[in-house]
Specification:
The complex is a heterodimer of chains A (364) and B (302). With 364 residues, chain A is α+β, with helices and mostly antiparallel strands. Helix content of chain A is 27%, strand content 29%. In chain A, the strands form four sheets. In chain A, strands 6-7-8-3-9-10 form a six-stranded mixed beta sheet, with helices on both faces. The radius of gyration of chain A is 25 Å and the shape is elongated. Chain A starts with a helix and ends in a 6-residue tail after the last strand. Chain B is mainly alpha-helical. Chain B folds into two domains: 37 residues, no CATH class; 222 residues, MetI-like fold. Chain B contains 14 helices and no strands. The longest helix of chain B is centred in the N-terminal third of the chain and has 35 residues. Chain B is globular. The chains are: A alpha+beta (364), B mainly alpha (302). The structure holds adenosine-5'-triphosphate and magnesium ion. Adenosine-5'-triphosphate binds next to strand 2 and helix 2 of chain A.
């Protein structure tokens, strides 16, 4: 195991446990006939920040629980640092978990919580205390070491939970929606802090969230899950600009999804244009609202024209809904500093074929 | 409906409020009468105990002089404390284990069946339970184990009968100790701290000793104190299970009362209560201190 007492006695800089990658192969979990996770294949590189993203009930926590050893898989393999860990109890895996409920020990002080993992792993008192001090400094809780955890704010408790998990120098840190209980401002602050802790400790993070903004802003790798399966995995930019399916396109940010099979179908100019410029087998395209250019007073020769049906001002941006002959209005956002077109104005809709994504599969 | 309600408006002169206090007041009469009778009985008991005796001195003083608190009494007291402590500890320990198991199994049917079983001492008459236990204790393997354990602990004045009494008293205390501890264990489980401890590298035994026990300790001390207090006054079970050879203080007091020796009964009872308080008070104080550690600290009013 990577977290021998010897390894723990050294400071965070010299001789730390190496981060390890996580590989899931055909990972399954069923409860009776209900499939919680149905065959997940996934590679997370060592030292990366991976975010598992998906709607409620899609199996995120179950996957995390299986990596941590709290949920027994029904089938498939889990490799951490290349070694299979299925059947290994949680206390003997090189992972540590930051629970959604935090699960801090209420009978121990802040320092006692952080030192717990070190003490049960046989680190001597003095060494454990020293290491605890370092970790509390890392999460900026040094002065509160002797406080009871119930006397801390939500954000401080969060940091205790993170320090406690980091104390055992896990090769992989698992975090299950750790910021969901915090208010928006603290959440932002903690996102930045967590990201910087991850980079300073060079630990592999597997971070579960259903907040796409959070995933986008923190992760090196985003894993989008849906109904117990991985829908797409890749870098945030990759996933945002190249969503593979309508589900992914809609789940991460706003997207106009144009389908050639619904609405008025092939007769609509925008569909004809897409067919010609961005051919796809699925007859389904995604266009981000900010990837569209609107032009006023279009000539009759403009390939796609539409009528403004709604204008919303957001300060930095302006959001238009434009009727282009589809079932849903076409959504376009443009920088806010321009003279707006009024409702009922006829505008030209300019698309760049390179910023249109051809989608696979059916509707979300 | 609406017409009826508006036809009877609440009176601003407070008469409606006066009537609403009458009913609870009436309901309080029987318990108050009962309480009054109890206070009267105690007063009468104290009066009789302190009334001048044959020598003209207060009966209580005479009783002490005549050996109400002699070595025989203190031997019975030691036995009573041993039996009660044993029963309270055993009952708490069994409750903790049962509660842990229930939380681990997490099946509604198992929990319901166990609860019913734990509750049964309350609904089965003590005499029936006692004789049922005698049947069990008379089984040769059980009797042999008790004899062996008794001779092992003999130097403490422990006898097989005393051990049997501890066992049966512990059973009688199960409803008191088990229910609060099961509730507490559920709370602890809900905190997920056991999982967290496992995750940080603690094995099952360490999780139990370093997380479960400290978090359950305040509850265990409180219910343990309660069970101890009740056991100190127990009279039927030691009489039946001890087969007359496990004399506890209540038994002595009972004999004094039969002999209409009020002063001796009073002195012995008062000392019993005192000893109980001496044991239980620190337990409750400790429970409070440990409980404070885990509860949010209240801000003192400025
Ligand atoms: N112990 C269990 N018994 C039966 N079904 C379960 C159990 N645990 C989870 N499930 C089911 O498995 C599915 C996935 O659950 P999971 O907790 O992994 O979802 P999640 O993606 O973490 O959701 P959320 O975002 O709401 O936390 C859900 O449909 C859930 O009802
Ligand atoms: Mg979850």
């Amino acid at each position: 195991m990577s977290t021998s007492p010897e390894a723990l006695r050294t400071g965070p800089r010299e001789g730390r446990a190496k981060p390890q990658g996580v590989t899931l192969r055909g990972l399954r979990k069923t409860y009776g006939t209900a499939v919680a996770v149905g065959g997940v294949d996934l590679d997370i590189e060592a030292g990366r920040f991976a975010a598992i993203l998906g709607p409620s009930g899609c199996g995120k926590s179950t996957v995390l629980g299986m990596i941590g050893g709290f949920v027994e898989p029904t089938g498939g393999d889990i490799l951490i640092g290349g070694r299979p860990v299925v059947g290994v109890p949680p206390e003997r895996r090189p992972t540590a978990m930051v629970f959604q409920t935090l699960a801090l020990f209420p009978h121990l002080t802040v320092a006692g919580n952080v030192a717990f993992g070190l003490r049960v792993r046989g680190v001597r008192k003095g060494a454990a205390a020293e290491r605890t001090r370092e970790l509390l400094d890392l999460v900026q809780l040094g002065p509160l070491a002797e406080r009871r955890v119930s006397e801390l704010s939500g954000g401080q408790q969060q940091r205790v939970a993170i320090a406690r998990a980091l104390a055992v120098e896990p090769a992989v840190l698992l975090l299950d929606e750790p910021l969901s209980a915090l208010d928006a401002q603290l959440r932002k602050q903690m996102q930045i802090e967590l990201r910087s802790i991850q980079q300073r400790t060079a630990t592999t993070f597997v971070y579960v969230t259903h907040d796409q903004q959070e995933a986008m802003s923190m992760a090196d790798q985003i894993v989008v899950m849906r109904e117990g399966a991985v829908e797409q995995s890749g870098s945030p930019m990759d996933i945002y600009t190249r969503p593979r399916t309508e589900f992914v396109a809609r789940f991460l940010g706003d997207a106009n999804v144009v389908s050639a099979t619904s609405g008025q179908g092939r007769s609509v100019p925008i569909v004809r244009w897409l067919r010609a410029e961005v051919p796809t087998a699925g007859d389904r395209w995604a266009i981000r609202p900010e990837a569209v250019i609107l032009t006023g007073d279009p000539e009759d020769t403009a390939p796609i024209r539409g009528t403004v049906t709604r204008v919303t001002y957001y300060g930095a941006t302006m959001r238009y809904e434009v009727e282009v002959g589809l079932a849903e209005p076409f959504v376009v956002t443009v920088p806010g500093e321009h003279r707006p077109w009024p409702v009922d104005a006829v505008v030209g809709v300019g698309l760049d074929p390179r910023r249109v994504v051809a989608l696979q599969g059916g509707p979300a | 409906m609406t017409a009826q309600i508006t036809a009877r408006p609440t009176r601003p002169d407070g008469k409606a409020a006066g009537r609403s206090r009458l009913v609870p007041g009436l309901l309080m009469v029987p318990p108050l009468l009962l309480f009054g009778a109890l206070v009267l009985a105690v007063a009468l008991f104290v009066y009789r105990a302190f009334a001048p005796g044959v020598t003209g001195e207060s009966g209580v003083v005479e009783a002490i002089g005549a050996g109400a608190l002699d070595s025989f009494y203190w031997a019975a007291m030691l036995r009573t404390v041993l039996v009660s402590l044993g029963a309270a500890i055993l009952s708490c320990l069994i409750s903790l284990l049962v509660a842990s198991a229930l939380v681990m199994v997490d099946r509604r049917a198992v929990t319901a069946a166990t609860m019913a079983l734990l509750f049964s001492p309350l609904v089965v008459s003590m005499a029936v339970r006692g004789y049922g236990w005698l049947l069990i204790l008379d089984q040769p393997p059980v009797a042999r184990s008790l004899d062996a354990a008794g001779s092992l602990l003999g130097f403490l004045g422990v006898t097989p009968g005393l051990l049997a009494t501890v066992l049966v008293l512990a059973h009688a205390m199960m409803p008191i100790t088990a229910f609060p501890l099961i509730g507490r264990m559920r709370e602890i489980h809900g905190l997920q701290v056991n999982r967290a401890a496992r995750d940080l590298g603690a094995g099952a035994a360490r999780v139990f000793l370093r997380v479960t026990v400290p978090l359950a300790a305040p509850t265990a001390l409180r219910v343990g104190g309660l069970a101890f207090g009740l056991a100190m006054g127990a009279f039927g079970i030691p009489a039946i299970i001890g087969r007359g050879r496990v004399q506890v203080v209540s038994e002595l007091v009972y004999q004094n009362l039969l002999a209409v020796d009020w002063p001796t009964a009073f002195v012995r009872l008062a000392v019993l209560l005192l000893v109980t308080a001496v044991v239980v008070t620190p337990m409750f104080a400790l429970a409070k201190r440990l409980g404070l550690r885990t509860a949010p600290r209240r801000e003192k009013a400025a």
